[in-house]
Amino acid sequence: MSDTFGSLVGKDVVVELKNDLSICGTLHSVDQYLNIKLTDISVTDPEKYPHMLSVKNCFIRGSVVRYVQLPADEVDTQLLQDAARKEAMQQKQ
Amino acid sequence: MNYMPGTASLIEDIDKKHLVLLRDGRTLIGILRSIDQFANLVLHQTVERIHVGKKFGDIPRGIFVVRGENVVLLGEVDLDKECDQILQRVSIEEILEEQRMEQQAKLESERLKLQAVKERGLSMPKADTLDDF
């Protein structure tokens, strides 16, 4: 899973959190817990959250992420499907 | 120097001023002094910032130890960008009063919503707060 994200480091993503906050930024790093570090962030929704104005980089705890919106052309869906299928087969055994 | 290259580490963020968003909606601002693998944090010279509309107020809190499961996000405060331009700093009493009024208004609208939903024979969906791995 973190390989998928590993290959997306440097791309622009939108992270939607469970508290309904959406943050747009460049993916800096990901870890085994799917904690995410973003740089050059901006709050996508109308800034109902003014406290983020002075924050440029942030660390997001993996457990609070609902979705990570990825650019469609950056993900090789075929490769991803094959990898997921392989992982599922390994888990079944 | 990254001790674990490729990982989202907080090591480089130590001793820098950070803004922490908690799951209960609170905002803490303080100097990050310590971290661990659960994202437990130790914040120094912490201030709780309350935002209501365009106004905000700071309550000094001292040293905070935050359990990782309550952390939503941690952001490095850019000291150059600390804009008090759009936002208006007010006294603690004023911001607490504003917050109290905002809470009351929210409770009132929730009560009306609940009533409307009940009248139609439905029920409100429960919030999911216990969903940690």
UniProtKB/TrEMBL annotation, chain A:
Gene Ontology biological process: mRNA splicing, via spliceosome
Q: Which Gene3D superfamilies match?
A: 2.30.30.100
Per the record, its GO cellular-component terms are:
catalytic step 2 spliceosome; Lsm1-7-Pat1 complex; P-body; precatalytic spliceosome; U4/U6 x U5 tri-snRNP complex; U6 snRNP
Q: Where is the Sm domain?
A: 1-74
Tell me where in or outside the cell this protein is found: Nucleus
Q: Does the entry feature the keyword Secreted, yes or no? A: no
Key words, A-Z? mRNA processing, mRNA splicing, Nucleus, Ribonucleoprotein, RNA-binding, Spliceosome
Q: Among its keywords, does the record have Nucleus?
A: yes
Q: Which GO terms describe its molecular function?
A: RNA binding
Q: Which PANTHER family match?
A: SNRNP CORE PROTEIN FAMILY MEMBER (PTHR13829), U6 SNRNA-ASSOCIATED SM-LIKE PROTEIN LSM2 (PTHR13829:SF2)
Family to which the UniProt record says this protein belongs? Belongs to the snRNP Sm proteins family.
Task: Share what the entry says about its subunit structure, partners included.
Answer: Component of the precatalytic spliceosome (spliceosome B complex). Component of the U4/U6-U5 tri-snRNP complex, a building block of the precatalytic spliceosome (spliceosome B complex). The U4/U6-U5 tri-snRNP complex is composed of the U4, U6 and U5 snRNAs and at least PRPF3, PRPF4, PRPF6, PRPF8, PRPF31, SNRNP200, TXNL4A, SNRNP40, SNRPB, SNRPD1, SNRPD2, SNRPD3, SNRPE, SNRPF, SNRPG, DDX23, CD2BP2, PPIH, SNU13, EFTUD2, SART1 and USP39, plus LSM2, LSM3, LSM4, LSM5, LSM6, LSM7 and LSM8.
Q: Relate the protein's function as given in its record.
A: Plays a role in pre-mRNA splicing as component of the U4/U6-U5 tri-snRNP complex that is involved in spliceosome assembly, and as component of the precatalytic spliceosome (spliceosome B complex). The heptameric LSM2-8 complex binds specifically to the 3'-terminal U-tract of U6 snRNA. Binds specifically to the 3'-terminal U-tract of U6 snRNA.
Q: What is this protein called?
A: U6 snRNA-associated Sm-like protein LSm2
- Its source organism is Electrophorus electricus
**Name of the encoding gene:** smx5
From TrEMBL, chain B:
A Gene Ontology cellular-component term: ribonucleoprotein complex
Q: What is its main location?
A: cytoplasm
UniProt keyword Protein biosynthesis present: no
Q: What SMART domains does the record tag this protein with?
A: Sm
Q: Which GO terms describe its molecular function?
A: mRNA binding
Give the UniProt subcellular location, in the record's own words: Cytoplasm; Cytoplasm, P-body
Q: Which UniProt keywords apply?
A: Coiled coil, Cytoplasm, mRNA processing, mRNA splicing, Phosphoprotein, Ribonucleoprotein, RNA-binding
* InterPro entries for the chain: Lsm1, LSM_dom_sf, PTHR15588, Sm, Sm_dom_euk/arc
Q: Keyword Ribosomal protein: yes or no?
A: no
> Which residues are in coiled coils?
93-120
Gene3D superfamilies in UniProt: 2.30.30.100
Biological processes, Gene Ontology terms: deadenylation-dependent decapping of nuclear-transcribed mRNA; mRNA processing; RNA splicing
UniProt domain Sm: residue ranges? 5-80
* Subunit organization: Interacts with SLBP; interaction with SLBP occurs when histone mRNA is being rapidly degraded during the S phase. LSm subunits form a heteromer with a donut shape.
The record's similarity note reads: Belongs to the snRNP Sm proteins family.
Query: What does the function comment of this entry state?
Result: Probably involved with other LSm subunits in the general process of degradation of mRNAs. Plays a role in the degradation of histone mRNAs, the only eukaryotic mRNAs that are not polyadenylated. Probably also part of an LSm subunits-containing complex involved in the general process of mRNA degradation.
The name on file for this protein is: U6 snRNA-associated Sm-like protein LSm1
Source species: Electrophorus voltai
